[in-house]
Amino acid sequence: MKYGLFGINNDLCADPSVMKTVSIAAEDAGFESLWTGEHVVLPDPQAPPSPAPPLTDMVHPSTALSFIAAVTSTIKLGTGITLLAQRNPVVLAKEMAGLDHLSGGRLLFGIGAGYLKAEFDALGVNFEERGARTDEYIPAMRELWTSDAPSFKGRFVNFSGIQSRPKPAQAGGPPIHVGGGSKAAFRRAVQACDGWYGFAMDHDITRRCLDGLAEAAQKYERPSSLGKLEISITPRGRPDDDFFAGFADLGVDRLILLQGGRNATERVAFLEDVARRYIEPA
């Protein structure tokens, strides 16, 4: 398995000195990737299903990852996840292409439809349309990343006679990893994405989601250009030998770990311990 580290832009890691220290330490320790979280706004007061208190510091993903790209050289940079339906896809395609270009092709583009209605309301985006927007924005963004004469006509986005440069460093654009445990997310993963990302899952929930993906694969055609669907999980639970082995046995390709530690020193010690026990030297 590959190992990533989640929350590189949140809470303690929103401090630029901590973000830099942890990012460099993760690269030195052999972690494959660093992942941001994203919420443009959080409901105040917090109420389910909001994931964090309203005063939680959360640096915008592309801002944080551009900063990290400048202080690292090889570690991949993941958005975990960008709430695609909340964004203008033409602007977002430009933003992500620039990040991939500046980082030398290190972007992993994690997306999701979103689930906080209060956030959609603040942004003026129809909450009920989030699934349809997500489905449409994926091919629209890929068109901008790959076509020499980009053109797209859809329900929510239309363009032609334009250019958006530079293109991403990665041919075809950055790999797209979609999150979510719904049937729609499984279908979206199979039909349109390079990978699927499950957040805060134990072995049993992961197994059920993998069964859901397998069922979707029987119902929907997967373009051959996408290749094998890569599975990434941010696990919950105590990180011991059985914990890691269980995900490996399920066929998980990447574990994106929640950080441990109350300060930068403890967080670096956490990832160094994980690396020493589970990451093979390059």
Describe this structure in words.
The chain is an alpha/beta fold. The chain has a single domain, classed as Luciferase-like domain (TIM Barrel, Alpha-Beta Barrel). About 40% of the residues lie in helices and about 15% in strands. The chain has helices at about 15-30, 60-70, 90-100, 115-125, 130-145, 185-190, 205-220, 240-250, 265-280; strands at about 1-5, 35, 75-85, 105-110, 150-155, 160, 175-180, 195-200, 230-235, 255. An eight-stranded parallel β-barrel has the order 1-2-3-4-7-8-9-10, surrounded by five helices. Helix 6 links the parallel strand 7 (about 175-180) and strand 8 (about 195-200). The two termini are about 15 Å apart.
